[in-house]
Structures are given as structure tokens and as C-alpha cells.
């Protein structure tokens, strides 16, 4: 406001641009324009982005950035041939500037004929690391936004000498802290003072440069040597470090810094595969692979279940349950259904018999029943073992295994086999063609045990074994003396 000739003239104060300033000084009463926080160094006020050389050491450079003072020791880039020393300059002066793409390397002209080349460090910024951004061809980062603050805040009950506000934290006067492995700071009465180490200049490609945890400067991998390779026709060639090749199906070699090392591949399967798989040679491969041939689900005890995908759990249900069936759409008739009929007394349950139902494709099933004491029935009549049915559908054979004494029912046409010991042990064996096409208490045979507990008509895997098993209950009638149902995964 200006008074001229008895008249009052008002105008908006024109504020100077604050530029790239991380911290704006909290405005005082009567102040309009924002100002970047200054620094107080040895009694002298320094403005934002000021840089100067220490009066006590020509190799120490100091900068003011948003109220934070940062000092570092200059790292000379090169001791050039024919260079000269000059008072007031840290590094030897060179006749030509250093040709480098490093934006942190500066070559300042001196007396028009010489260049002072050195690598600088960057001022510490009073903003979170996430707010840092570096423009193309610039050495140092800037803050994306700025905040309002004072260099030093007056004392409080818990901090009587006052404190420094830095990156959202509070630091007592004379309290030291680190911002990164290269920088150590301290809160003083004039604000935050930081000492930063400037890493020396290296002629290391970015592809060979690497860092170690809690270490300030990068390291450089030594340039690796090539390997000499003599081919079968006596031709000498060179291969690069890290290059790999095979001398045969089982031996792989690698060039390691001028040295060739070869290793023979170790095969996982050595002549024997787990049950349900068979050994197969793969073209171009050193080792045989164990190819899936069939899947086995086991029921035993009171009772325990091991699915086709090897998930084990217990369920003491005393009703009838579907062990495995073709997973047809709702309303469609599956090609086969294998049912376990459980019985129980007091607090125990076990599998008492097994039924195998095969679709006749006319809306009905053909039933084969494996009963206690190894009795086998077909459509209500007991059959003598061994027995073969080959004239009508379904074709099957049933016999007693002379080695283990188990009854083995084989339906080779549909790829199903059931083994029964006549008491409580049963195995359901399915050929590979049923993989990912079955469901029931024995799981879905897809190689993943994590999704075996899928309820009938469910939309996701169940977390309750009881809920899962009850969904596969077959029929409504249960055996007398039902056992207490429990589960254990």
C-alpha cells in the first residue's frame, strides 16, 4: 500500500520464483511471498543452491539446499599428463576437459587454457526418498514438491534445546543420524549439517557396476577373459565369458573367466520310478523321465484317505461315499462310479465293502460289489474267482493276487482297477486318460493336492474336510452303529 497526494494506491506484491526448493520458510507476520529456507554457516547467511569452497580446505565443497548444509570432499577425476598444480584448486589442472557422459563430473575452465575436473556429490534433500526425481542429463535429484518449515524449532518439554525437523522426523540438537550409507548428518542450532562422501570416478560400464549392502560406493566387476576352444577339426576359436555349450547330451561346459569347466548332468531317476510312473527316454535329453502312467488312491484304517495327488486326510463317516467317478455335468450319467460303503460301531468306522458301477449307456448301471471276506457279487449273484467277462459290456476280470492275497478287479477297457483285501483296505487305480477328469473323495487327479477337497457341485475348495466328504455321500441310508465323524488333515 502506497500513499501519494492523499490517495491510497494498492498493488499485489510481486513474488520472486523460488525455483527448485525443497523447504519454504514459514512466512512471518506481514510477509506475503514464500521464500526458500536459507542456511546459516559460520555466521554468514547462504541462499538456496549456493555452492562454495571451504576457506580452510580447497578440496571441500559446501552447498545450501532448502535449509540443509551439505559438505563433501572433492574427488579428482584424472591426474592428466602435463597437468599443473595451482593454489586454490584441489585437483591438478588439465589442458583438455575430460570427455565423459557422467553428469556428476564437472570440468571448470581456469584462465582460459586449463580445466579443473572433478566429481561432485549432491546436496542432501529435506524430502522423502519417494519424492526425489532426477531430470535427464542432471547429476542431482530434486524434490517433487516443497513443504513449509523453520530451520530450528524452539525447545519443548522433552526437547529443551529445540529440534530440527527433517523428512518428517524430529531430531534433538546435537543428535546425529544417517540418511544413507554415504551421508552422516547432525542437528545443530543453525539447522541440519550433513557430511557426504563423494564416490571416486571410475571408468566402469553400467553393466559391470554393482553395489553391496550398507556400502556407499559401487564396485566394478573385472572384465572377464575369453576362453580358447579347440574344435573337433582342430580349429581354434574363442568364446566369451559365461558362454555355455554341450559336448554331448549329458555334459555341459561353461567359459569362466578364461577357464573351461565341464559338469556331467546328474539324473534324478536312476532306473526306477515311483509307483504309477514309468521310465521314458526324452529325445535330446541326458536323463530318463518318469512319465505318469496311472494314479492310485488308497483307503485304509478307520478310515484314512490318500488321494490320487497324494493328499492325506482322515474322515470317520459311517455312510456310503463316492471315492471316484467320471466328472460329468450335472444330470449326465458318468461312465463309472466307485463307492465305499462304510460301517461303524461306537466311535470307530471303516470301509466294509466297495461297489463299482459302470454305465450301460441306457440310463442304468452294471454293479460289481467287493464284499467282506473277499466275496465278489455281480448283479446279486456270487461269482467264483478267477472270473472273466468278455462277451458283454462291461468287460472285466477279477482274480486274487497270489502274492498279497488281495482281490483285483480290472476294467481295462475304461482304465479302472480296484484292489480289495476283504476287510478295510482298498486301492483305486486309474489310467492316465482320466487325469483331471474325475472327482470324489479321491480328488481330481490333476497333479495338484491343493485343490483335492472340492465338494460336489461346489464353486471352490472347501476348508472343512467334514463338509467336503459329506457332499460326496451316496444315497440316504447309513449303516447301523454309526461312528462319530471327525476329520484331520
TrEMBL record:
It is found in: Secreted. The keyword Secreted applies. Residues 295-479 form the VWFD domain. Transmembrane segments: none annotated. Gene3D superfamilies: 6.20.200.20. Keywords: Secreted, Signal. Residues 162-221, 240-291 form the VWFC domain. One of its GO terms (cellular component) is extracellular region. This is BMP-binding endothelial regulator protein. It comes from Ascaris lumbricoides. The lineage of its organism: Eukaryota, Metazoa, Ecdysozoa, Nematoda, Chromadorea.
Amino acid at each position: 500500500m502506497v500513499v501519494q497526494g492523499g490517495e491510497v494506491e494498492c498493488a499485489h506484491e510481486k513474488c520472486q520464483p523460488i525455483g527448485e526448493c525443497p523447504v519454504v520458510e514459514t512466512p512471518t507476520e506481514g510477509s506475503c511471498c514464500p521464500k526458500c529456507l536459507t542456511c546459516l554457516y559460520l555466521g554468514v547467511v547462504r541462499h538456496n543452491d549456493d555452492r562454495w569452497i571451504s576457506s580452510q580446505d580447497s578440496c571441500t565443497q559446501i552447498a545450501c539446499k532448502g535449509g540443509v548444509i551439505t559438505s563433501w570432499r572433492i574427488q579428482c577425476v584424472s591426474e592428466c599428463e602435463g597437468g599443473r598444480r595451482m593454489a586454490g584448486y584441489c585437483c591438478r589442472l588439465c589442458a583438455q576437459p575430460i570427455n565423459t557422459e557422467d553428469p556428476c563430473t564437472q570440468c571448470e575452465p581456469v584462465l582460459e587454457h586449463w580445466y579443473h575436473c572433478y566429481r561432485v556429490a549432491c546436496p542432501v534433500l529435506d524430502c522423502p526418498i519417494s519424492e526425489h526425481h532426477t531430470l535427464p542429463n542432471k547429476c542431482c535429484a530434486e524434490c517433487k514438491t516443497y513443504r513449509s518449515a523453520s530451520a530450528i524449532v524452539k525447545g519443548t518439554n522433552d526437547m529443551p534445546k529445540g529440534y530440527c525437523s527433517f523428512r518428517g522426523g524430529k531430531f534433538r540438537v546435537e543428535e546425529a543420524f544417517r540418511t544413507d550409507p554415504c551421508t552422516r548428518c547432525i542437528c545443530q542450532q543453525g539447522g541440519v549439517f550433513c557430511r557426504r562422501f563423494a564416490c571416486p570416478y571410475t571408468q566402469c560400464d553400467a553393466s559391470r557396476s554393482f553395489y553391496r549392502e550398507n556400502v556407499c560406493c559401487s564396485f566394478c566387476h573385472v572384465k572377464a577373459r575369453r576362453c580358447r576352444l579347440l574344435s573337433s577339426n582342430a580349429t581354434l576359436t574363442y568364446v566369451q565369458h559365461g558362454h555355455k555349450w554341450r559336448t554331448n547330451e549329458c555334459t555341459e561346459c561353461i567359459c569362466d573367466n578364461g577357464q573351461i569347466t565341464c559338469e556331467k548332468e546328474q539324473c534324478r531317476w536312476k532306473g526306477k520310478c515311483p509307483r504309477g510312473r514309468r521310465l521314458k527316454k526324452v529325445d535330446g535329453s541326458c536323463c530318463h523321465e518318469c512319465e505318469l502312467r496311472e494314479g492310485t488312491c488308497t483307503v485304509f484304517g478307520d478310515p484314512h484317505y490318500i488321494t490320487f495327488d497324494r493328499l492325506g486326510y482322515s474322515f470317520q463317516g459311517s455312510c456310503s461315499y463316492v471315492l471316484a467317478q467320471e466328472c460329468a455335468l450335472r444330470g449326465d450319467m458318468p461312465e463309472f462310479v466307485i463307492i465305499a460303503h462304510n460301517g461303524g460301531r461306537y466311535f470307530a468306522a471303516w470301509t466294509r465293502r466297495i461297489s463299482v458301477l459302470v454305465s450301460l449307456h441306457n440310463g442304468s448301471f452294471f454293479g460289481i460289489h467287493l464284499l467282506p471276506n473277499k466275496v465278489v457279487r455281480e448283479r446279486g449273484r456270487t461269482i467264483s474267482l478267477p472270473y472273466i467277462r468278455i462277451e458283454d459290456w462291461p468287460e472285466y476280470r477279477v482274480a486274487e493276487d497270489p502274492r498279497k492275497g488281495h482281490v483285483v478287479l480290472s476294467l481295462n477297457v475304461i482304465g479302472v482297477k480296484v484292489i480289495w483285501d476283504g476287510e478295510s483296505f482298498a486301492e483305486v487305480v486309474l489310467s492316465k486318460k482320466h487325469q483331471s477328469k474325475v472327482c470324489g473323495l479321491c480328488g481330481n487327479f490333476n497333479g495338484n493336492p491343493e485343490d483335492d477337497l472340492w465338494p460336489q457341485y461346489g464353486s471352490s475348495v472347501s476348508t472343512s474336510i467334514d463338509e467336503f466328504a459329506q457332499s460326496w455321500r451316496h444315497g440316504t441310508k447309513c449303516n447301523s452303529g454309526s461312528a462319530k465323524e471327525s476329520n484331520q488333515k
